[in-house]
Amino acid sequence: MDPYIICTYDGTNNLYVGGYDKDKKTSFYRSLGTTDLEAAMAAVRSLIERGITGDPKEALVQKPLRTVTEVLEFNRSKAEAQASAEFNIIAIARMERLMGGSMLQHMVPSTFERFKNAAMEEGLALSTVDRTLTVLRKACAVAVGERRLSRHHAPDVPYFCTKNDLRAARPKGRVMDVEEIAAAIDQAEFIHFLICLVWLANLGCRIGALLDAIAAQIDHRSDIIDLNPPGRVQTSKWRPTLPIPGTLLPWTTDLPPGHLVQWRGQPVGEIDTAFDAACRRAKLAPGANTYSVRHALGRHMRAKSVPDEQIALWLGHIQPPQSRETTIIYSPYSPLYLREAKAAAESFVHEIARHCRRHDPLQPPWTKA
C-alpha cells in the first residue's frame, strides 16, 4: 500500500486524501471535509496512527475517540453486557463526572492521581478506585482494537492498589462473634431477613450471590447448591458449588419458586438496612455488616483446622482445580468434597443456635406447625 497523499480533486479548494490500492488496482479519493491544510494533515495523521490502511472511506466517517467520555461511551454497551454491569455503570458515571473531558493522549500520572484523590474523598476504597479504572483500561483496549483510538494515544492507566495494600486492607466488616450473630438473628422482624441471616451463617457467601440465588439452583437429590445462577458468567469473585450443611437442609424445603430471599413474591435488592437496624436493636458495637458473618465463618473454619484450600474454595476465593487428578476430590458429588469445611459450617451454626432466644436457626418457622 502506497502512502496517503493530500490533494485537490474536483476543481475546488476542498482537500482529499488519495492513494492507490495495489490489490484492487484502483485509485481512491476521499474528501477530508476541509479546505485547511493543517486540518487535512491532522486527519490523515489520525488515519495512520489508528492503523488504517487502504481506502479510508469508513474510517473517515468514524470520529476518532479523543476524550475519556468518548471512549467510555463507545464501550458502554459491552460494559453493560458483562456480569459486573451494575458496577461498570457506576464506574462510568464517576469517571465521566471527575475526568470525562480529559484528552486521552494528554493524560499523565498526575491526572489519575487527581482522580484517585477525588474518588477516595467520595468514600471509595483504594481497591475500588483500581477496579473503576479497569473499566477505562478495557474501554481503551477495545477502542484501539476497533481502530477508533491510536495505540499511541491510549493512556497508560496505572494500578494504585498493590498486593501489599490488599493484604493490609481492613475487612469490609468487623468480625462478629457467635453471640452477636445470634443477637442479630433474634432481632429479625421479617421472615426474608431471617432466611438471609441463616443462609449467610451456613454458607458465608457474598451477599450478592445470596440475593441473586433462586430455588432452582438447589440440587435436592445431591444436597448441593450452585451459587452461580444459570447463564451468569463467573468473575474473579468466584461463586462456588457447595454441599449444603445439615444445619441448612431444613431451610431448603418447601421453598416458593423464584429467589431464596424474597419479599411479597419479589426479589430483595439489598439487606444492609435491615442488618443495620437489627444490630442497633441488639445494641451491638458499630462496624458490623453482612461481611462480618462471612469473616466469622472463615475464622471459625481456621480454628477448626479446616485446610486452607477448602476454606478458599468454600468462600469463593479460588475456583476448583481443573486437573484430571483432582476431578473426583473436587467434584461436588463426591462425599469427600469440602467435607471438613462443611462440618465446620455445621458446628458454627450449632454454636450460634445455643445463644439464640427468639428464633431457632436450626428449624425454619414454617416447619414448626
Count helical runs.
Answer: 16
Sequence stretches where pLDDT stays below 50 over 5 or more residues: none
Rg to the nearest angstrom? 28 Å
Principal-axis shape equals elongated
Spatial ordering of strands, largest sheet: 1-2-3
Main structural class: mainly alpha
Number of strands: 8
* Helix proportion: 40-55%
Task: For the record, give the distance between the C-alpha atoms at the N and C termini, rounded to a whole number.
Answer: 82 Å
Q: Mean of residue pLDDT?
A: 87
Give the biggest sheet: 3 strands, antiparallel
User: Which band does the percent of strand residues land in?
Assistant: 5-15%
The H/E string reads EEEHHHHHHHHHHHEEEEEHHHHH
Keywords:
369 residues, mainly alpha, three-stranded antiparallel beta sheet
Structure, described:
The chain has 369 residues and is mostly helical. Helix content is 44%, strand content 7%. The protein contains 16 helices and 8 strands. The strands form 3 sheets. Strands 1-2-3 form a 3-stranded antiparallel sheet, covered by helices on one side. Helix 9 packs across helix 12 and helix 10 packs across helix 15. The model has no long low-confidence stretch (mean pLDDT 87).
Question: Could you give the topology of this structure?
Answer:
Elements lengths: L4 E3 L8 E6 L4 E6 L5 H13 L7 H5 L6 H7 L1 H5 L4 H15 L9 H13 L4 H20 L17 H6 L9 H9 L4 H13 L3 H6 L5 E2 L4 E3 L14 E3 L18 E2 L2 E2 L4 H10 L8 H14 L4 H7 L24 H17 L9 H4 L1
Antiparallel strand pairs: 1-2, 2-3, 4-5, 5-6, 7-8
Helix pairs in contact: 3-5, 3-7, 5-6, 5-7, 9-12, 9-15, 10-13, 10-15
